[in-house]
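Example 213, ligand 2-phosphoglycolic acid.
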Amino acid sequence: MTSSIIASQINKKNDSVLGLATGSTPVGTYRNLVEQYRNGQIDFSHITTVNLDEYCGLEPKHPQSYRFFMDENLLKHVNINAEKIHFPTKNENFDTKIQKIGGIDLQLLGIGHNGHIGFNEPDTVFYNNTRVVKLAPSTINANSRFFDDVANVPKTAITMGMSTIMAARKIVLIAGADKTEIINKLSEDIVSPQFPASILHYHPDCTVILSLE
Ligand code: PGA
């Protein structure tokens, strides 16, 4: 279902700017998109991608970097122009860059068990731009499953901010069955910076998909 939403965005506007997310949840979505590309149903040649976040201190070729994840799961399998692939870095203003390329048409999001989106952890501030953040201990623990040792999980990351995400024209948040509790909480009418994803209640075009498979 998520891949159909992304495919129809690509087919409606062949030069769409797609905001992409990493993590376990979107793996199946990317697999479906690669399949649709191979079947000639979608074309990435004019597509631009901007990624939601990246660890600080990991090279793009590091197997746990989000760049590596995106290459392996989607980007190296489709006909995207390498110059149109963008990740946040410390060295440039990512929000300005996104504005210059026309803004995000569709932003894909996952959600953390603590309600984070991107690496926007529970906080007292609701609106912020792309910036370097310290990861919450619960996020470091959750992500340690991908590393040999919890000590090797980077302690900081660069993430699109809440304002960056909210500026996307369309948002699709996807969650697996393990996130049922947090999605139930999201469906309640509580909007608080302590629950970052709750800001999405204010977005005019946000779809939440809970996959119970
Ligand atoms: P997951 O992560 O898809 O690996 O569960 C989502 C997130 O923490 O944002």
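Summary: The first strand starts at residue 17 and ends at 20.
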